[in-house]
TrEMBL record:
Protein known as: Peptidase M20 domain-containing protein 2
Signal peptide location: none
Lineage: Eukaryota, Fungi, Fungi incertae sedis, Blastocladiomycota, Blastocladiomycetes
Keyword DNA damage: no
InterPro entries found in the cross-reference section: Bact_exopeptidase_dim_dom, Peptidase_M20, Peptidase_M20/M20A_hydrolases, Peptidase_M20_dimer, Xaa-Arg_dipeptidase
Domain Peptidase M20 dimerisation intervals: 188-269
Length: 408
């Protein structure tokens, strides 16, 4: 056993271990990239990853508690220190640290780099298990296989099922074209809306029709006016996915998708979402149509845990010379939305160029460099009682939602 090792020794141990599994992770990444599967249909990815983990010693792989989530999994590693290590590091009870892996693809393939997210979670999890055994640290480590991040909110289902219930700290990496440690990810809601009118010939008898296109256009115009009175950090954007069949036929049916985002989920739920719904309803009322709407699960905003993130930022600088810069500047730019934000509460990608880059050796190497930094956050949580205390205090300051997301 190596007790109270200095950080350089720990870094070396982590890097050496990651190098031993690099080829295995590279093969996993390439297999995922070559077999892209959209959300909740990641059967190949699920089988590939769980079979790989099952071959590792002392790791138990189980399905999600949500039995409908057949492509989700939870891998667990328990290590009870053989010495008095737990007391030495101030642990009254075993700390549980979680990592997340995503592996769903976009329709165009892995243009969001989820093949890299998958191996970064696996790599950090396995490296953390190695450090726990090598340095004899009491800890429970979990790897969450989280399907359907791209708009379907797989992590939300896993949270609701209780998969994350006993996790003290959770983290993940996301590939991009810049290094960030303190990003802003907005809370978001996705609204599907349909308008139903009455078809008529636009030239011979337009008065017999009820124009569903008028309804959706009026709704979008109302949203355009609403944008003048919303916060600079709010976002509303959408598309008309069905606008009618022919120019000489008054459309009886139209459909649109609208995304609504805000810095905080409470503002989104209580203020912005109801105002957008009023705009959509105004279109139906103005055109005399009926309306049907529905929402996907709400993605919460990502709350960066500063004490933990400071450790990651330090490791980026020490290990690979990357200075992430001023946290306030990083937070000033929105990076989109993710269901990792929901876990916090309990980059120019999506392109053909990023799709091609996600399978390169360069992307793999850079991912594992950052895995070596992330695993040091886990090590610090295992060994530093003060860091655990400060991280929990930071989490306690986050306002928790007082009610469920509104239903449309």
């Amino acid at each position: 056993m190596v007790a109270h090792a200095d950080l350089d020794t720990v870094r070396s141990a982590a890097k050496e271990f990651i190098e031993t599994i690099s080829a295995e992770l590279r093969e996993l990444s390439l297999q995922l990239h070559a077999h892209p599967e959209e959300g909740f249909n990641e059967y190949f990815a699920h089988r590939l990853i769980t079979e790989y983990l099952a071959r590792k010693p002392h790791i138990h792989v189980a399905p999600s508690k949500d039995k409908t989530m057949v492509t989700a999994f939870v891998a667990t590693f328990d290590h009870s220190a053989s010495s008095a290590g737990g007391a030495s590091y101030g642990q009254d009870a075993m700390t549980t640290i979680g990592f997340c892996s995503e592996y769903d693809a976009l329709p165009m393939g892995h243009a969001c780099g989820h093949n890299l997210i998958a191996i970064s979670g696996i790599g950090a999890f396995l490296a953390a298990t190695h450090l726990a055994e090598h340095f004899d640290l009491p800890v429970r480590l979990k790897l969450f296989g989280t399907p359907g991040e791209e708009g379907k909110g797989g992590k939300i289902n896993m949270i609701n099922a209780g998969d994350f219930a006993d996790v003290d700290f959770a983290m993940m990496l996301h590939p991009g074209n810049i290094d960030l440690a303190y990003p802003t990810y907005l809370a978001s809601m996705h609204i599907d809306v349909e308008y139903f009118g009455k078809e008529a010939h636009a030239a011979s008898s337009p008065w017999d029709g009820v124009n569903a296109l008028d309804a959706v256009v009026t709704a979008f115009n109302a949203i355009a006016h609403l944008r003048q009175q919303i916060l600079p950090t709010d976002r509303i954007h959408g598309v008309i996915t069905h606008g009618g069949a022919a120019p000489n036929i008054i459309p009886a049916y139209t459909r649109a998708e609208v995304m609504v985002r805000s810095e905080r989920q409470d503002h989104l739920q209580e203020n912005l979402f109801p105002r957008v719904m009023a705009c959509l309803e105004s279109g139906a009322a103005a055109a005399g149509c009926t309306m049907k709407s529905g929402t996907e699960p709400m993605y919460a905003d990502v709350v960066t845990n500063v004490p933990m993130t400071d450790v990651y930022a330090r490791e980026l600088l020490v290990q690979i010379g990357v200075d992430v810069g001023d946290p306030h500047e990083q937070r000033s730019v929105s990076r989109g939305s993710t269901d990792m934000g929901n876990v916090c509460y309990v980059a120019e990608i999506h392109s053909e160029e990023f799709l091609a880059h996600a399978k390169t050796q360069e992307a793999h190497d850079k991912t594992l460099q950052r895995v070596a930094c992330l695993v040091m956050v886990a090590y610090s949580l295992m060994t530093d009682a003060d860091l655990r205390s400060r991280a929990r205090a930071e989490f306690a300051k986050v306002p928790k939602p007082t009610h469920d997301a509104p239903a449309a």
